[in-house]
């Protein structure tokens, strides 16, 4: 059974940048709690606790309890803002959930193994999609999905439909044909014949000659123009 996580929250009456700075000095961060047909609430929560949730294996899909006014409400982190310079948490959106109502979430997909198309055929392995969307109850959100790529050969791919789901508990929302990873042939540029390379190297010389020739012609015309007329 998963460990119960409780995030302490307090009502937040004041808003604005000054209030947000004051909260951060005390180790808290502005937050809003909404969803599940409940009121939208402005709160202050522990930046440390939310940070630990986001860094955990289940990340933003972690189910936890928001403790407020002696009551607990189940929620997940829906969105968050981070300072691009310091990396500090600036704001958090918390989505209140109903434990008996299915919801849609995005779950990361990780691959493992060395593809035969790379090891034996010299191909290149590429990851195309890193997460898929599923529908399930809040208490049944998986931490991740894993796909074994060992048997992939050049030209072959693993798709979202290849993920093993417990269909009694969850449904795949992402289209089944979406490519997760594949192996492609290494692209090697063909070497050009020596005479073609030589021709390319000599190509710029022609316009240069024409350009110089034009100057010489212009020079001759200018010289003729400067000659005085012969008096009769």
Descriptive overview:
The strands form three sheets. Strands 1-3-2-6-5-4 form a six-stranded mixed barrel. It folds into three domains: about 5-100, Ribosomal Protein L25, Chain P (Beta Barrel); about 105-185, Beta Complex (RNA Polymerase Alpha Subunit, Chain A, domain 2), CATH 2.170.120.20; about 195-225. Mean pLDDT is about 85; it is low at about 210-230. The radius of gyration is 33 Å and the shape is elongated. The protein has helices spanning about 15-25, 45-55, 115-120, 195-200, 205-225, and strands at about 5-10, 30-35, 40-45, 65-70, 70-80, 90-95, 105-110, 125, 130-135, 145-150, 155-160, 170, 180-185. About 25% of the residues lie in helices and about 35% in strands. It is an alpha+beta fold. It starts with 5 loop residues before the first strand and ends in a 6-residue tail after the last helix.
The helix/strand class is alpha+beta
CATH hierarchy: architecture of the largest domain: Beta Barrel
Q: What is the rounded distance between the termini?
A: 119 Å
Strand percentage lies at 35-45%
The fold-level CATH name of the largest domain is Ribosomal Protein L25, Chain P
**Strands across the major sheet, in which order?**
1-3-2-6-5-4
- What Rg, in angstroms, do the CA atoms define? 33 Å
Question: What gross morphology would you assign?
Answer: elongated
* Tally of contiguous helical segments: 5
How confident is the prediction overall: mean pLDDT?
Answer: 86
CATH superfamily of the largest domain: Ribosomal Protein L25, Chain P
Work out the helicity level: 10-25%
* Tally of discrete structural domains: 3
What composes the largest sheet? 6 strands, mixed, barrel
| CATH domain class name of the largest domain | Mainly Beta
Low-confidence stretches: 208-228
Count all strands and give the number: 13
**Helix-strand topology string:** EHEEHEEEEHEEEEEEHH
């Amino acid at each position: 059974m998963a460990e119960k996580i409780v995030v302490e929250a307090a009502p937040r009456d004041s808003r604005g940048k000054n209030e947000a700075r004051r909260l951060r000095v005390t180790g808290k961060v502005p937050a809003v709690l909404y969803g599940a047909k409940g009121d939208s609430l402005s709160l202050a929560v522990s930046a440390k606790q939310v940070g630990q949730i986001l860094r955990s294996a289940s990340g933003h899909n972690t189910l936890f309890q928001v403790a407020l006014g002696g009551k607990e409400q189940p929620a997940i982190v829906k969105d968050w803002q981070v300072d691009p310079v310091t990396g500090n948490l600036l704001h958090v959106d918390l989505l209140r959930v109903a434990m008996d109502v299915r919801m849609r979430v995005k779950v990361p997909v990780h691959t493992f193994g060395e593809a035969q198309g790379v090891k034996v055929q010299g191909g290149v392995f590429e990851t195309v999609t890193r997460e898929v969307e599923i529908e399930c109850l809040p208490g049944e959100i998986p931490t991740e999905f894993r796909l074994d790529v060992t048997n992939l050969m050049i030209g072959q791919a693993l798709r979202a439909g290849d993920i093993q789901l417990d269909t009694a508990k969850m449904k795949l929302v992402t289209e089944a044909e979406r490519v997760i990873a594949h192996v492609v042939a290494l692209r090697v540029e063909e070497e050009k014949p020596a005479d073609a390379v030589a021709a390319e190297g000599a190509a710029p010389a022609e316009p240069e000659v024409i350009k110089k020739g034009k100057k010489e012609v212009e020079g001759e015309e200018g010289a003729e123009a400067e000659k005085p007329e012969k008096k009769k």
